[in-house]
TrEMBL record:
Gene3D superfamilies: Tetratricopeptide repeat domain. This is Tetratricopeptide repeat protein. The lineage of its organism: Bacteria, Pseudomonadati, Bacteroidota, Bacteroidia, Bacteroidales.
Amino acid sequence: MDKIIISILKDQNLGAAIRQMQTFITKNALGEFKDDFMQIVSDYELMKDFVKKGLQDSKREEVYLQLLKRLYGLCNDMTADLKKKGTAGLTYYSQYAFDYIQTDEIRLFLESFVQDVALLSLENNDTRKQELYSKHHEFLTALFYHILTSAHWDEQTKLFYQDLLLSPTIDSMDAQLIVSAVMLAVLNVFDVNKFMLLLYVYQYATDVNIKQRALVGWILSLPDGETRLFPELETSVKKAITSGTVKRDLLELQIQMIYCVSAEEDTEAIQRDIIPQIIKGQNLNWDDETNSEQLNDILHPDSSEQAMEELENSYMKMMDMQKKGVDIYFGGFSQMKRFPFFNFINNWFAPFYPEHPQLKTIEELKDNNFIQNLFKHSPFCNSDKYSFLLAISSIINRIPQSIREMMAHDNIFIQGADVENKDKPAYIRRMYLQDIYRFFRLCPLNSSFTNPFVQDKFGWKGLFFLNKLIMESHPEKEMKELGYFLLHRKKYTLLQQLVTDNPLIKEDKDGLYLQACSAFKQAEYERANELYAQLLSMAPEDKNILRGAAQAGFAVNDFARAEECYAILHQMEPDNLLYALNLAISSVRNNHVEEGMQLLFKLDYEHTADPQILRPLAWAELMRAKPEAACMQYDKLLEQSSKALPDDYLNAAYARWFNCDITQAIELFRRYIRLKKASQVNLYKFLTNTFSNDRELIERNGCSTFDVNILIDILGEEKENEV
């Protein structure tokens, strides 16, 4: 099927596409599509007959494109049909057969539900209420699956749903779910009219929930090659993105998507850095102190306050992450998506409402004050609210009665910051994105759809700012802001994807800086060095540029530039220890050994026995071929074994070797080998590479290649004897 699509969209070769489709229909037994296919073939044969007769037709190109569009639509219809037949989860059997239901009946049913709910509020009839919501849920589920797997829409169908979704006479939650169905349908198989519907609803919806779902929908289903066949796509998207407000919305949405794909990474960070402190804090015993705790209070009177402060800081750190957009609940709720409730695709996208028929078994919890309070104060997406209720219901009978009574009180306090701006577009959009991410990450039925959260060989599909349709709206300012966000979040692969061959990343200071940072993080050091050279000419006193230029210079052995940049930084911040150390090291490497050594001695005097200073000081002694002095410094460094690095043992071994203390040198080399976990099989290669990397240092201290080879053999034999 991909070859046919390429023939239609890229090559625009109708004849080739027809021949390929003929084979495809026969191979896949798609006889139900043959009549439509043969009608296209017949119309094309008629066009060819006109050409053979030498007849001129001013609309020939227009007709040819129309035939391509018809063939493209048919191709997508076949794809949708094959997916539906091949995926059990895309089929829903219902009493409502939407293939035979008229659009007016759909509108009437949805409008009647709103009226029935209003009348029901005047009654106190639980049975009638359950029947009403069950019937409505069944209808909406069937409609959801019908849209999800429908063939491509004609203009009339698009206009019907367009009018329906903007109508104030249907329930907002119904409209929201229909928007999600349309989005998934386009992610299943692209349909220009469904896409245009999402774009139109975003522009004209007054309900913020519907509007934000439509925005996410058309962004996630942005076309690519289809614009050649449907130029109206380009015109419509450009029209939608004319205002600065929309561009800001798109930037916020792009950033929110990046937070989504970072959910598992952020979960690991929370479990590694924050949760242990919270668990530790929960062990504080405020009522029943043991003797050991009383003794601890005497010996360490501030320990309790410190522990409580650490607990509070850990909790507030997690809340701060949440406010910035981090999906802090993904890790916990990802384990709660195995309930039968989530066997239905529409339930992953359903707005939360307590009357959901598939929650009828947990009636006791729906009006629970604790649950209502929790949902009010905690930023749970809709999917997680359903998960939480289903999870609680599975253990409610095992919860002690006293706890259950406490949960029923309406004044129970939920610790944590109230959800601010809950009705704002950014918050609504973020919660919806989390619903979508959970579906694509956790639902086994997601494989039929184009996943906007995965990476392929071309990069991350979700980086929609690089889509041609978005770029042509010229969001230069937002593009730079996105670049800096990626840099701040250390998303270097995405940053490289963003800045590479991007005409909106200009050759100004910001654009060059983003390119330079990306090049350096991708180990393209020569390019980074060149870019920083340009930046230094633009902003010679910018600290970020100076730091980057110094690092890039060091990476390509341009120690003169590194020394120059660190000298300026050191002058700007004379108390910055890191700048001073790097300046000293750069000076030594730039053959300004005495200047570098003087600075190192000064720092060593001011910060006695500091490993940060001893390390470069000892190494600098080696670089100026004074191994005896280096031995003294490395002895001090290795005395602090807990702070020693593997390379410290290597360089200490060099110092002993250069100082003719071969026995001690071998012992230190062996310690380095153990720390690096070099295997016997690869030991000779490992040692050869190690000494090769330090060739300049070795030669400065008068050792030849023969000396190196002999030492490698000695160390290799020592290791063999150990085995």
